From TrEMBL:
Pfam families: Radical_SAM. SMART domains: Elp3. It comes from the Bacteria. Probably acts as a heme chaperone, transferring heme to an unknown acceptor. Binds one molecule of heme per monomer, possibly covalently. Binds 1 [4Fe-4S] cluster. The cluster is coordinated with 3 cysteines and an exchangeable S-adenosyl-L-methionine. This is Heme chaperone HemW. It comes from Populibacterium corticicola. Keywords: 4Fe-4S, Chaperone, Cytoplasm, Heme, Iron, Iron-sulfur, Metal-binding, S-adenosyl-L-methionine. It is found in: Cytoplasm. InterPro entries: Aldolase_TIM (IPR013785), Coproporphyrinogen-III_oxidase (IPR034505), Elp3/MiaA/NifB-like_rSAM (IPR006638), HemW-like (IPR004559), rSAM (IPR007197), rSAM_sf (IPR058240). Residues 24-268 form the Radical SAM core domain.
Length: 422
């Protein structure tokens, strides 16, 4: 069961936004996220807003999902126009889920076509879809590339069969080199997502997964520590003693191993859990995720999707610096609202300048480019020296005014963030 939506203020039926969200928009990028909530099975560790095909029907079915998404895209364009937002093309588009590639490639192309019609795409825009290795064929990937997709991110997770079984992943690890080759032949950039810290995964298992990913020749790899969320099947297995979670030391050792292996292979870390290679001098980072971390605007399409448009400006009663909102979670309710001409938004919140500033600090600290120490409060700036002494912050950049985490600092990023934002 995916987590409950946050509380928030109500949203007008037509989705209208206050005019102050348009303030400064010309200086911010704009991206589009499309949530496709379908999976063939629900993995035991997953708490995302996903559904299997047999759970849904009507306007929420896979067959009708592209047309339903187009309704929200049309609504979004009109809402943004009424709020006075300037005309901006989308710098990035990201299809996530769920498994977007559970839909036919022509349906993903149809949704992307709706985005192009509504906003247009910036020249060289990054257009990514997530995919499971067992959900694509060479023809499928060629269709995506022909439609304007530029990048695919495969949920590899592991190369070790017993680890995949514990995660309840459906693909065969031996398929990974094939799907990477098919994607590259189609002209798509490729990323592989890995998970470390699965119950029963040894350090040798983890090394095997990382080395297998490297052997494919991809230019982007993400490695995330497994987090077992309450309410998931895996959380119940852990509670019953059927699975044993790894120690923090085990997690740290695996992070250090992936960082060592990727660095030796010519990758650079650019966010705590993400590494990329340079091609023709350009780091092949995920531009869509960087847009989130740097505070750009985005509209989230789909059930449970979140959106954000910034400010700052003057709200009804106090200064505001951004508006965040989220759609209803269930696809049937989502489809019904759009069919009736109403916004699918379930709630929203206004961020004050102080709240927006705090979020920016929390996100930018995680980036290799670092954070300007001047952005911290005077009290927090005085604590930076202690983090340098503890080996969590790079000394040379700090003396020049930029806070950058060391590798140990990356392992303890949440601790650093808490200390510098309290």
């Amino acid at each position: 069961m995916s987590p409950a939506l946050p509380d928030g203020e109500s949203v007008p039926q037509d989705g209208s936004l206050p005019s102050w969200v348009a303030s400064g928009a010309d200086s911010r990028g704009f991206g589009v996220y499309v949530h496709v909530p379908f999976c063939s099975v629900r993995c035991g560790y997953c708490d995302f807003n996903t559904y299997t095909a047999t759970e849904l029907g009507g306007g929420a079915s896979q067959v009708n999902y592209a047309d339903t998404s187009l309704k929200e895209i049309d609504l979004a364009r009109h809402v943004m126009d009424r709020a006075g937002l300037p005309s901006r093309t989308a710098n990035t588009v990201f299809f996530g889920g769920g498994t977007p590639t559970m839909l036919p490639a022509t349906h993903l192309a149809k949704i992307l076509g709706g985005i192009k019609d509504a906003w247009g795409l910036t020249e060289g825009a990054e257009v990514t879809t997530e995919a499971n290795p067992d959900s694509v064929t060479p023809e499928y990937l060629r269709t995506l590339a022909q439609a304007g997709f530029t990048r695919v991110s495969f949920g590899m997770q592991s190369a070790v069969p017993h680890v995949l079984a514990t995660l309840e992943r459906t693909h065969d690890a031996a398929r990974i080199p094939d799907v990477v080759s098919w994607a590259r032949d189609a002209g798509l950039d490729v990323s592989l997502d890995l998970i470390y810290g699965t119950p029963g995964e040894s350090l040798v298992d983890w090394r095997t997964s990382v080395e297998t990913a490297l052997e494919t020749g991809v230019e982007h790899i993400s490695a995330y520590a497994l987090v077992v969320e309450q309410g998931t099947k895996m959380a119940a297995q852990v509670r019953r003693g059927e699975l044993e979670l790894p120690s923090e030391d085990d997690q740290a050792e695996k992070y250090e191993l992936v960082d060592d292996l990727l660095t030796a292979a010519g990758f650079e870390w650019y966010e705590v859990s993400n590494w990329a290679k340079r091609v023709d001098g350009r780091l092949k980072a995920c531009e869509h995720n960087l847009a989130y971390w740097r505070g750009d605007d985005w509209w989230g399409i789909g059930p449970g999707a979140h959106s954000y448009l910034g400010g700052p400006g003057t709200g009804d009663t106090e200064p505001d610096a951004g508006m965040r909102w989220w759609n209803v979670k269930h696809p049937i309710r989502y489809a019904a609202l759009l069919e009736s001409g109403e916004s699918p938004a379930a709630g929203r919140e206004r961020l004050t300048p102080a709240e927006a500033h705090l979020e920016r600090i929390m996100l930018q600290i995680r980036l290799s480019e670092g954070l300007s120490i001047a952005a911290l409060s005077s009290e927090a700036r005085q604590r930076v020296a202690a983090h340098i002494a503890s080996g969590l912050v790079e000394p040379k950049p700090a003396f020049a005014g930029t806070l950058k985490l060391t590798r140990t600092g990356r392992l303890l990023a949440d601790t650093v963030i808490r200390d510098l934002t309290d």
